[in-house]
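haha ok so turns out i had the wrong file open the whole time. this is the CORRECT one, sorry everyone. sequence first:
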Amino acid sequence: MTSFNTALVLLTLVGLGCAAAALYFAIRADRLKSQLLDLRDRLATTSRENKRLMHMVEYDDLTSARSRRYMRELFASKPQDGKNAMIFMDLDNFKSVNDGFGHRAGDTLLRAIADGLRKACKEGEVLFRLGGDEFCVFLENTSVPEAVERAKAFVAIVSDCRIDIDGVQVRRTASAGVARIDKGQDLVGALYYADEALYAAKQSGGNALRVTEGETLRSMIARRTSPRPEDMAEAIRREEVTYFVQPIFDTRIGKAVGVEALIRWVRSDGRVLLPEKFLDAMIGNQARQIIPSVRATSNISTQFAGLGDRFYCAFNISSRFLEASALEGSDLIDDLIGDLDPARTVLELVENAAIQNIEKTRYLLDLLRERGVRVALDDFGTGMSNLHWLSSLNVDMVKIDKSFVRGLGETGKDTSILRALHSMSQSMGFDVIAEGVETEASLEVLQEIGIYTAQGYLLGRPERPDFWHARLSQGMDGISSPMRRPA
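then structure:
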């Protein structure tokens, strides 16, 4: 082979090598480009999935309100300096929507309500769905009075929200609790305080708003320090839960006409606890155990039976009993009354509970009247805004709340209010008893008005039944100085 041919062969081989290399790098470049495009698509998919997952984490998937998890993050990121507030809302009787129209209808109503609430939120307000039909609003730099006004607006939005289900307009009201977030308070504590206010709103009958302060706060503290249901079960078994009695006097004759049995827990250490310390735990542990054993109530009635044909024993009815009576009817009434002599028995029902459950109250009164038991309306006057309902309740007597008696003899205003209550009671045919008589000045005003039946510390404090049985059997009244007879 000549030198020329050799050179030609070499050039050909080099050309083929370059071409092969070029082809290799071209194929490699296409592959890399494809890989890069695939990677970009996967990154985009991952990004979309991450956004979807973050949305699921931060938002409730049904209502698009913020989620509980996001609430924790937001709460931790905001300084809790005592200037923020919390609103806790719950729909009233929402279960009936699911039961009556189906869960799809319930979901539709929840979405509509959440949409309205979310749109109503102002700057610094965030709506959360905590689950079920519970919503919460975090309010930044908002005072309690301002939060109350905002809660009223949110509750109104819920009430105004309607959905159409097969031609039926479905709506529900809401109850709300408002609480200030204390300085340094964590989310659990803030929700607890708001939930306590919501609990109070629900207990009042629903479609209401309460604030964790004043009486609601005191009730919350009492529940936090109340005994466990197990403690109450053991106390009932040992018969530590019993009655003290307080006499009710006819001040015209200076004689007792009856006693009110007041439930007490006499602990093994000698302490005597009032019902607000244990009644919720007691009732929660035994739904039918509204008062101590039937034997205890019968013993009270029997013990005082010899004090006169018209001498009576009065027992309080828990509002929980009112709820249960509509479900369990006469069986529960029988458990409550036991062997009590109807002619000597008065059952006291708190006025607010009676008015808020007006149909259940009528039902209960019918059951009691079938057995010949008399009924008193306790704390009378505290439900003044609903007095038009009272005419439909066939009660025998009313007990004027002590808040109207306490200031008698000090201001003319208290006397005027009491005169009006007495006049109204007479027009409705009620016998009137004044509670909380603690001073002779109050007693004089009551007698001047014409209210002669009364009870209170001036006339006699709650004591064990044996104490008052012995004292009343001897014809002794309850005050240290002679009882003033009306002129």
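Confidence is low (pLDDT under 50) at residues 285-291, 478-483.
again sry for the mixup
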